[in-house]
Structure formats: structure tokens, C-alpha cells
């Protein structure tokens, strides 16, 4: 049994205006995909492809218009239990927007622990120290506030929060897109280490081809709300000549400015 399954998931939005309702807009259409335990599925697509909507549906934040989302065989929108919420965590693109600026790093990391566990104060503090050190920061950083960290450091805190409850799946929603090249490489390396250490599963939602190739085991291309390509290995994806893959490749800027061209 797969860890995660989406079965013919569709979703539509309708915009409401004063005294009128606009035509509904389809953002996902018959999306079917699976994610096996211990693997990373790279979900790629250009802006507006429906990637973030799909992520919100998987997190239980938005009920799909049609279809099913199964986590360990249970439909998350039909079950009365909320056990899956502890097992599915998320790391967002904007680390500053993802935290409360009035909370310390320790309080931020402790959020899921206080929500889902009943640790004694000493055990909670020990867990927080372990978590922040696992993401490359120090015990002293637990007392700092978000404005005292760089973007890369704060993303590490968000990762520590995501792994706090020993989840089975982490959704990475453009988790490295706002970082510079050095921090991006460091965070990708950290995510890879944590995946191997804890046998984590990732759904890596991104438009960044290089980041996807660095972390993902399988690849799915989403375009205009539909899956238009699936690649079972990194090599199959790298060698792909499908126009949707080529469009993503062409949209990527060269690593060095000298090799970038201006499109007229």
C-alpha cells in the first residue's frame, strides 16, 4: 500500500462578486498520483499550474471538488480521526511568513509538540535542543526571535518544526525557492540527510529544476491542473525531451549571469 494516493482529484474555484457569480475556474483536473514511503516525489510545474492548490488539498486545508486523497489507505476527508495531521507536516517557501514574529525559535519548534504530544517540561526542552542541533543551529538559538535570523537559518527552524513529531510525510512547498544559491544547496543537503536518517517521505513542490533533481527520486509534471508527464527515475527525467519538461528547462536562468540571455 502506498503512503499517499490521490485518485482523480479535481478542484474548481468560483469568484464571487457583488450581486453576481463568475464562471468557475478549474485548477486541478483528474489528478492521480502515488507516493511510496521513504521516497521523494518531485512535483514540477510553471506558475499557475495548480501545484500549491494540490499541496493545500493534501494538507487537509482545502477539500477537493471531486476525487479522493488517501493517506495510509484512509480518506483524509472522510475519516473522523485527525491522526494524519501529526504524520503530515509542511515547509513553506516564505519562512518569515510561516512563523509568528513574537515567538522565539524554541516556541516555534515546540508548536507541533504541544499540539500532538504531552511531554514533560524537561523532556520538551531536551527535544528542542536535539531538534535545533539536528538542523545545524545551536541551543542558544532557541531563545532568539525570527528577526534575528537570516532567511536560511529561519528555514532551518521551520524544518526543525516540521520534523518535531516524527512525521511520515513532509510537503516541501517551494521550500528553497527564496534562498540564495549557497543556502539552497545547504538546505537541500540537510533535507537529504534528514530523509535518509528518519526514512522520511517528501512531496517536493517546485518550479526549480535543479533543486528537484538534487532531491527527488521520481518526477511528475503538472500543467494547467493536469499531470502531463511522469518519470520514474532521475535519469529518465534528465533525458526527457517532452515539451513540458523542455519548457521548464528553458524557463530556468543560467547559474552565472554571464550565460543568461535577454529574450526580446
What does this structure look like?
It is a single chain. With 264 residues, the chain is an alpha/beta fold. It has one domain (4-253): Rossmann fold, CATH 3.40.50. It has nine helices and twelve strands. The chain has helices spanning 51-58, 83-87, 105-116, 121-134, 151-163, 181-198, 209-215, 234-238, 243-251, and strands spanning 4-13, 16-17, 20-21, 25-35, 40-44, 66-71, 74-75, 88-91, 169-173, 201-206, 218-223, 226-231. The strands form three sheets. A six-stranded mixed β-sheet has the order 8-9-10-5-11-12, sandwiched between helices. Strands 4-1-6-7 form a four-stranded antiparallel β-sheet, with helices on one face. The chain has a two-stranded antiparallel sheet with strand order 2-3. A hairpin with a 2-residue loop joins strand 2 (16-17) and strand 3. Helix 3 packs across helix 4 (121-134), helix 3 (105-116) runs parallel beside helix 5 and helix 5 packs parallel to helix 6 (181-198). The mean pLDDT is 90.
Amino acid at each position: 500500500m502506498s503512503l499517499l494516493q490521490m485518485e482523480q482529484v479535481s478542484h474548481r474555484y468560483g469568484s464571487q462578486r457583488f450581486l453576481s457569480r463568475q464562471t468557475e475556474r478549474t485548477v486541478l483536473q483528474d489528478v492521480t498520483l502515488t507516493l511510496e514511503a521513504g521516497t521523494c516525489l518531485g512535483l514540477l510545474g510553471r506558475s499557475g499550474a495548480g501545484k500549491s492548490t494540490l499541496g493545500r488539498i493534501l494538507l487537509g486545508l482545502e477539500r477537493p471538488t471531486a476525487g479522493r486523497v488517501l493517506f495510509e489507505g484512509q480518506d483524509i476527508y472522510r475519516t473522523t480521526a485527525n491522526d494524519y495531521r501529526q504524520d503530515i507536516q509542511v515547509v513553506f517557501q516564505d519562512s518569515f511568513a510561516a512563523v509568528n514574529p513574537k515567538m522565539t525559535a524554541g516556541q516555534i519548534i515546540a508548536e507541533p509538540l504541544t499540539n500532538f504530544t504531552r511531554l514533560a517540561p524537561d523532556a520538551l526542552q531536551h527535544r528542542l535542543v536535539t531538534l535545533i542541533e539536528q538542523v545545524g543551529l545551536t541551543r542558544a538559538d532557541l531563545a532568539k526571535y525570527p528577526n534575528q535570523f537570516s532567511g536560511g537559518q529561519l528555514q532551518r527552524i521551520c524544518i526543525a518544526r516540521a520534523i518535531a513529531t516524527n512525521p511520515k510525510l513532509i510537503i516541501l512547498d517551494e521550500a528553497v525557492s527564496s534562498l540564495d544559491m549557497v543556502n539552497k544547496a545547504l538546505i537541500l543537503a540537510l533535507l537529504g540527510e534528514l530523509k535518509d536518517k528518519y526514512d522520511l517521505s517528501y512531496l517536493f513542490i517546485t518550479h526549480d529544476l535543479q533543486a528537484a533533481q538534487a532531491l527527488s527520486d521520481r518526477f511528475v509534471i503538472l500543467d494547467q491542473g493536469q499531470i502531463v508527464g511522469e518519470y520514474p527515475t532521475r535519469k529518465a527525467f534528465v533525458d526527457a525531451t517532452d515539451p513540458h519538461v523542455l519548457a521548464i528547462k528553458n524557463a530556468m536562468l543560467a547559474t552565472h549571469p554571464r550565460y543568461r540571455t535577454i529574450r526580446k
